Amino acid sequence: MPENTAAVLRAPRTPLVVESAPMPEPRADEVVVRVRAVAVNPVDWIIQGTGSVTYRWLPTPAVLGSDVAGEVVAVGSGVTRFAVGDRVFGLATGTDRGRDPRHEGAFQQYTALLERLTAPTPEGMSHEQAAVVPLAASTAACALFQPGHLGLPMPGRTSQVDGADDRGVVVVWGGSTSVGMNAVQLARAAGYDVVSTASPRNAATVRALGADVVVDHHDPDAVAQLVQGIAGRRVRGAVAIGTGSADACLRVLRRTGGDVLAMASTPVSLDGLAGRRRLFPAMVPVFTRIGLTMAGFTVRARRAGVRTGFIWGSSLRDDEVGHRLWAETLPQGLADGTLLPVPAPVVAGTGLDAVQGALDRQRAGVSAQKVVVTL
After folding, report:
1. Which terminus of the chain is less hemmed in, N or C, by CB atoms within 10 Å?
2. What is the 3-state secondary structure (H, E, C) of 199-227?
3. pLDDT by residue (tens digit) across 286-345?
């Protein structure tokens, strides 16, 4: 029996420590994976730095991380899609409410993944490339396809689009982010036009993924340019990614008749709070600003007739969107090249000892890339 090790958050607001960990045994609907690459997301350092107030349900010691790629070493009794030795990637949901962060966390040598949130890694795709996909693609899919958000038909559904004149356009503010890149290409795969934002250096990348209009999000006239790019087409909704994006998207929707906004970011960044030595009293003005900003935004959205909601990427764990994304859309799209593993991985090190540095690097800021650690 192999031994397991993990990069463990032993207590809130402490550095990760590499230590021995229990070897996960697969439940009926799980596979156990020998992890070969993990990717880092902002939620990881947010949990580490603010978990005692933002993730109050999460017990410590905990293993963080959502993005996993590796090989199957054991399968549960009910698993039918995978066998020992298969190369796979998947979404670990151990930090969700009611889940087990030691059993399912990504930052360890061996972890358990739900079969329904796992897909085969296509031939020719590296573990590092596959590891960038899970949380970003899942979050984008929630925004685009869940009935509580834009509710668009998923790629492959014959009912999705009857003609080019009817398909309409999706607005993605933050098209060069991990979620934004996946939202752009998933919306295009579903048959919709996309208008988006990115910095000038990343604009070509976002266009290559399928956006027909890309404007500079720093430009004071970005909203007007997006409205001009929409050019009277029916707006199916907007996906807002990044601080300040929700307000900008609301202005676009008010001018174009769109009525649904899916939000992936808080109106005030938690970066400064996560870096403070003490949460209290620094948390008071931060959360006060978040509350006041959201209250004002909600009033404006209601007056404009725009339905809004925050996206929770792993909420597709038990719905039809998650099943279709992981059993059909991702395997087929990545295998035939209609979907790409984006953004590009940037390897921050090898081994669990490198995970803390990878979190710090992600928090410092990356552009059109995703920080990955190989194991």
Report:
1. N
2. CHHHHHHHHHCCCCEEECCCCCCHHHHHH
3. 778 888 888 999 999 999 999 999 999 999 999 999 999 999 999 999 999 999 999 999
